[in-house]
Structure formats: structure tokens, C-alpha cells
Amino acid sequence: MQEISKGANVSLTALSEDVGAVVVSLGWTSATGAGDADVSVLLLDENGKIRSENDFYFYNNPAAADGSVQLLGKTPTANGDEDRISVDLTAVPEDVARIVVAASQYGGARFGDLDDLRMTVADRSGEPLVGYSIEDAGVETAFIFGELYRRGEDWKFRAVGQGYETGLAGLATDFGIDVDEDAEESPAGAAAPAEDTGPGSAAVAEVAVAAVAVAVAVAPQEGAPSAVAAVAAAEQAGAIVPAQTRGRAPRTTKKKVTLPKVAKKSLAENDTWRTARLFPVPSLKSDKEREVRATSVLLSVMAQVPELGRRLTAGFGAPAGRMQTFTEVPLPHGDTPKRPDGVIRVERAGKLWTALVETKTHGNQLKDEQVQQYMDIAARRGYEAVITLSNDVALDGSPVVDVKIDRRRKHKVSLWHLSWAEVAHQAQMLIRHEGVGNAAHAWLLQELLEYLQHENSGCHGFQNMGPAWVPVRKGIEDETISPDDVRAVGVVESWERLIRQVCLRLGGELGQKALPVQRTRRDSDPRARRVAAAEALCADGRLSAELRIDGTSSVIAVTADLRTGKVRTSVDIPAPEGSYPLATAKRLLRVLAEAPADLHVQTLVEGDNGPRGTLERLRPEPGDLLPKDGSAPTGFRLSLIKGMGNTRGNTESGFIRGVDDAVDRFYQGVVAHLGAVEVRGGRRG
Q1: Which contacts of 587-593 are long-range, i.e. CB under 8 A and separated by 24 or more positions?
Q2: Is beta strand 542-549 parallel, antiparallel or unpaired with respect to 600-605?
Q3: Quick one: which of 285, 385, 589, 640 could link to 355 by a disulfide (CB 3.0–4.6 Å)?
């Protein structure tokens, strides 16, 4: 990969023979784990302006109708997360001269608070071509990272690194997007922070947020402020746009269909009657039957529901086009033909993108030798990718399968992995939150989801902590495990997979991305980090993680104590500056009126921990939260503690289910009630 500096440019065609489509990645890390930014893409004409509002792609307008641009969302990395954008350069309209890639922050956050700001461009196979790091970020609230631009028939990349102190509004205005001046001229700081209960400032914030809600909810009209403009103006005014508004898909004249969460009243005589399903599964007995059925079900729905097919393949370099899928295709290989579980073919503008699919269900593991054979077949027959699909979850630095990729071959084949949990997550996001083209597509996705969630489908996602789990857990309980026990590294990897799957499930329920938080630098070695975590596990018997809900500052800390058999979930809430301690305590307990009675509340003071108690005990006596020595609270830690399962994780009472339930209960019972109150992850342990 070629590294370039600010202001430099490079021809993409000089770096790769396959740049008809590229994947642009923007990444950053944060010392606190709470830093985040929103990615946006602008298509500009020769005059450096957008042609229409449809040329601005952001969280409320994530994909172009022609498939030229699609925001793929955030993906976890070894040390944080990154936003990826698929750009099909062959589909970009001819009157588009530049494609600008930018990011913005909100709620008073600055890019100088983030670390490792970086942009990379990869070809459709995932091979990184060029990278650029921003090292001079300061008070800026929006940044243009780089741009793709035409030079004759070629596309080039330029590292820009231009910052804006005026946020999304200033960036949008520069490129011809009209920002609602009335909203923009709201007094700076008029939108109150979450802890400020002053009536005047709260009213201004509500007006700003209402303007966003109105602009997003109605179809565009002549002279009316756009959703982009309203969001930009509200953020510029200091308002924190609610996550449910930020993540909502735009209303257009072609309404998208989502399924209601509340099921229609059944016409069955009693509850024992089973609804007829498009994809029945109760008769499945063998692993082979499960694999064949699961592959056929998924690939057929991908071909019939373009939104799902595009969502699952765009990150692998597939263009937006007509998709056909096939199962059990015989392909020549020596004396005996091989039969991959599936083949995906996508056609666009006379060009064909193809991929082989290898599927595993239940607890079956992918086989290195088998996947290697498919990689060799794909290289010889001109396939672009091999996609593996199983209940396992891929980790950076710990591939699901170990194969050799021959870089000397002119035709490169990329290897990608999908988890069944990721498939279910994407289906749920479409039918519950983002919408699809018509009711038939929504019904097909619902049937797919019903199939994946059936106990006999074998597509339940990561569900086993591995062979090292039982001996390591027993060694910790008996205090006989040595600090350098190599089996502990396997448990740490399984824990990371579990947390990523918990994030997928939670994100699907909320309609927002939930991501693991990594507090190490982007260039650190994943293996070394896991070895250090394994040593800590052997020493104190705890597995720890943090996860963040996209679009909010909420960071949930999760700790599984293998010695006590308890799972703790927690968040920290900072105390507002200058407020009266007793008033702050009373307000917190009012906010938590619907929270579980066994919620633990602990007062945080500088350099020490203050009073603590359950919500049930503290409700009648809020003053018990105040330190006896008169110290001013710096914040509060909210925690729920529950027992974890004792089995390996493949039953309802298992450890995996226990952690998943603990996070769900904590979010629904505690975090959801906090609203706009700023929270950050509780200290581990």
C-alpha cells in the first residue's frame, strides 16, 4: 500500500488493474472509547457543487439509487472501528467530476479529541491501495479526508485534510447545500447540555430537534429546508440530534416498507396452531440437510430482495446489479469435481462479478483444506471472491480459516467471512428500521429471519466458547491455572466473538450500530493484546469488554467474573458542573423511576468511590448518595449484576445466553431510560 501526505495525489489505475469499484475506509480511535464521527460523501460537478440534494450521502441517506455510492457502516477493528464506503466508479454519472469523502462530529466534540485519523482506499478485492493519515487535527468539527476525481478516463485520489470549525453546516454550505438560516442563527450554546435543566435552553434545543424531525418526516417541498440542512443547522446550534432521528431512513415519495413490531391478531383457534412458513425447518435432522437448506434459503432471498443482496456483498467488492444465485454447482478440480455450497453472480453494465460460497451450520467448523481448494478453483476460473459463512465470528489477527493466497497470480481472489448473526442483523435492520422496496420483500425477509431463528436451522450465530472454556474456567474457580496457560488466549478470542455478536443482536433491536470499544492504538498487535488479556484473566478471573451504541455517547462495560459466576453491566454518568449534589441525586433517581429495583448506584468522588446502594433502598432517601465528608460527586456508576450460566453455551442457561441477556436487560431497563443523559463506560471490574 502506498502512503501519501496531505495534498498529494495518485492515480488509482497505476496502483491496481481492478479499480472499477473501490472501498474507502475512514478510521479513528479514542482514548476514552467514546469518540465517534459521522461519515458523509458528496458528488460534485465541474463547478465544485452538488447537482441536487440527492448528491449528499450521510446517515439519513446512505445509498445512491444507481449503486454508485453506499455507506456500509462501521466495522470493528483490532483497536477501534472504521467506517467503510463502497464506490462503484463505473456507475458514477458522467457529469460528476469529484467524490468528496468527509466526516463530522456533533455535541461539541472535536476531531482533535480523536487519535489515528486515517483514510484508506482498497480495490474491489479488498487489497489496500493508498493510505493517508491526518496528524494535525485540532478544534475542527468536520473534516474532508480526501477525494476521488476524474482525469480523462482515469480516477485519481487526493489526500485533502481540510477541516471546518463550523461542523456539518459549514461543510455543506461550501458545496451548495442550503442550510436553514433561521435554525442556524440560533444563539451559540442555546441548546443545553443534557444535565442543564434551565427552561430557556431546553426550549431552544427542543425547537432545533423539532426542526430536524419535521424536515426528515415530510417529503421534500419547494422552498422547505432539507433534512440535511436541518440536521446540520441543529448540530451547528449545539443540539444533540436524537439517535432515533439521526438513524432514520429518509422519507421519499416512494415509501419504504417495514414490518410492524406488534404482530397482527391471530385467527387460530388456540396457541398450539403453528403458522405456515415459507421455509419450514422442523424436519431437518442431519448437518448436511441444514447446510443445504440454509444456503438455498439465504441465496434465494438475496437474489429476490436486492436490498439484502447488495447489503451482504457490497463490502466484498460486488457492484450494484442483477444478482443470480446457485447451489451445489459442480466445478472441475483434478479427477473429481468439487461442489461449493453456492455461487453468486452479479452483472452490471456487461461486467460480471462472481463468488463461491462455502457454508457451515450448527457447531461445524470450516475446513482449511476445503476452503483452500475453493480459493484455487476461483483463481483458475476467474472468480473474484470466496465467501465463507458459518456461526463463527471473524476477528482481526485471528482468521476463521488458514489459507494461502498466491499474490503472484495476476487474478487475485479475495477471501471474506460472514457470520449467520451478521445475516440476521442485516435482515432485521431492513425489515424493522430501514425499510425495503415493497411488502413482498419485507415478507421474504421476515420469513428468512424466522428460519434463521428456528432452533433446528443451525444458524444461531456464535454459540460455543470452545474446547478451552471448561478447563480454563475450572482452573480459575480452583485457583490452579498458571498465568501463562495458552488455553486462556482461546477463551479471550471466544469472548471477543461473543461481544461482537451481542453488538449485532443489540444493534438489530435498536436500529443502530453497536460496536465493541478497543482502548489500544490502531497499530498494536492483536495477538499481543489478547495474550495480555489472557494473563489478566488468569490473574483476576475476569473477562471484560465495552460496547458503544452508534450515534450516542453511551458506553456499556461488561465484566464476567468467572470466580463468582456473576456478570456485571455498568455505565458511568458524569455529574453536571456547578449543580447542587442533592438536586443531582434526586434528578438521577427520577430519571431511573422505571429502572429495576436491584440496580446498584454508586457515587464517584475524586480519587475514591463514595456511597452505594440499590435503587430500591435509595429511592426514599436520595441523600444517602452524598458523601458524608461533603465531597462533591464527580459522577455516578449504575450497575446490574446477574448470575451466568454454567454450561458451555449451547443451551438457554449457557454462559453465552447469560451475557446476552445481561446486556439486553441492562440496556432496556437502565440505559434506555437515561435519554440524553451523557454516559460513559463503568470502570472494569
Answers
A1: 587/197, 588/625, 588/636, 589/615, 589/618, 589/619, 589/622, 591/673, 591/674, 591/675, 591/677, 592/638, 592/670, 592/673, 592/674, 593/673
A2: unpaired
A3: 385
For residue range 200-212, what is the model confidence (pLDDT) as tens digits?
333 333 333 333 3
Which among 421, 392, 365 is positioned nearest to 660, based on CA atoms? 421
**Residues comprising the chain, all counted:** 685
Decide if 211 contacts 184 (C-beta within 8 A): no
pTM of the full structure: 0.74
CB contact set of 225 (below 8 Å; sequence gap of 6+): 178, 179, 180, 183, 211, 215, 233
**DSSP letter, residue 633:** P
Gap between the Cα atoms of 541 and 100, Å rounded: 48
Residue 292: how many other CB atoms lie within 10 Å? 18
Among 655, 635, 636, which residue's Cα sits nearest to residue 645? 655
Q: What DSSP line would sit under 112-154, residue for residue?
A: GG-EEEEEEEEETTS-EEEEEEE----S-SEEEEEEEEEETTE
pLDDT in tens, 490-524: 999 999 999 999 999 998 888 888 888 877 666 67
Are the C-beta atoms of residues 533 and 492 closer than 8 Å to each other?
A: yes
Asked if residue 451 lies in contact with residue 279, where contact means CB atoms within 8 angstroms, the answer is yes
Distances (CA, A) of 106 to 28, 235, 431: 16, 6, 28
Closest CA to 644 of 541, 519, 514, 572: 541
Pairing relation of β-strands 154-164 and 322-327? unpaired
Cell digits of residue 135: 496528524
